[in-house]
């Protein structure tokens, strides 16, 4: 029995995480964004107006339409419900987790790739966006899919990865605008520049890629043009005669940095530095030193003119996008989730690099910290949301025991850090 459990340990951990995701899909949608998006999708499923988006019969000009399209189709197939609203986004989120594994596997061992996908899946961020579903769920999944396809294409030069990359980019752009192009440029641009891969930078096939992406975006662009650009007499959200195309390609994303976008909450430059402390739990105390060590080693190798080894896609993708998003005049915690796959890979690789003695010490400290989550769960269930069924406390008790068993059984192995923390994350959520 123990051998069977050990053999399928990763399957069981992913299964536990996905059970929480599944239960999240039945929770009522939350105000404001998710409730608004669900209503827009419901209206679209009734009117069949897929190219022009309306909210209560009025022109809607904010988020791109992919979430509305997929949710409207889900409503028509399964009926209007919380589950139907969240289903497409959760499926794309799962694609992002799988893409994280496949991308990491191109550069790291299978163990590190599995650990990276588990770390990503068990963050508070992903438990949140599989419940409070917004456009960032699809953005994360399709962005990481695009990163995987681009990396695979660069290694194999197979056309299938090139075509899938175009679909991934188009899908991500129709999820939340052209941010995906900036992420790919930052991540792979860092890799190309550091390794002086000039041929990859000036590859003429990138022009063909943009042409294919443009063709895939044409239905959305046609809808924006006919709904807004052909009607300069319209006033939407206080904007007189807004261009739907300009809003999509510039104002909605980059306008938040330049100040052109009407959304602003005066959040400070260090907003994401604060929010990541909770939304990347339970891994933040490994990620911070992982990022520091990666940057330190990179600078040291550049100064000493040592030939650079490994990949620098993750560090470029995380740091440059983190800084860019921090310059925005309007920030919410979930805006930074799109770069969490990069953070998960950096964290996983860092954990597997420890010596046995250091790993043992860190495992003990981290496991001790994890007990605070159990204490928080007890307080929540006894004071804030008193329990009315024995199922939940029995489940939590079982996960608590399993986390202790995993900690005691796994000696001198990275899984001694990983498995107990994942079990705690499942139980807490």
Percent in strands: under 5%
Largest β sheet strand count, sense and barrel closure: 2 strands, antiparallel
Helix proportion of residues, in percent?
A: over 70%
Number of helical elements? 21
Your description of this structure?
The protein has about 425 residues and is mostly helical. It has two domains: about 90-275 and about 280-355, no CATH class; about 355-429. The protein has 21 helices and four strands. The chain has helices at about 1-5, 10-25, 35-45, 65-80, 80-105, 110-120, 125-130, 135-155, 160-175, 180-195, 200, 205-230, 245-250, 255-260, 270-280, 285-305, 315-325, 340-350, 355-385, 390-410, 415-429; strands at about 55, 60, 235, 240. Strands 1-2 form a two-stranded antiparallel ribbon. Helix 4 (about 65-80) crosses helix 5 and helix 5 (about 80-105) packs antiparallel against helix 6 (about 110-120). The radius of gyration is 22 Å and the shape is globular.
How do the helices and strands line up, and which of them pair or pack?
Layout: H1 2-7, H2 9-24, H3 33-47, E1 54-55, E2 58-59, H4 66-78, H5 82-105, H6 110-121, H7 124-129, H8 135-156, H9 159-176, H10 179-194, H11 198-201, H12 205-229, E3 235-236, E4 239-240, H13 244-251, H14 255-258, H15 271-279, H16 284-303, H17 313-326, H18 340-351, H19 356-384, H20 391-409, H21 415-428
Antiparallel strand pairs: 1-2, 3-4
Helix pairs in contact: 2-21, 3-4, 4-5, 5-6, 5-8, 6-18, 8-9, 9-12, 10-17, 16-18, 17-18, 19-21, 20-21
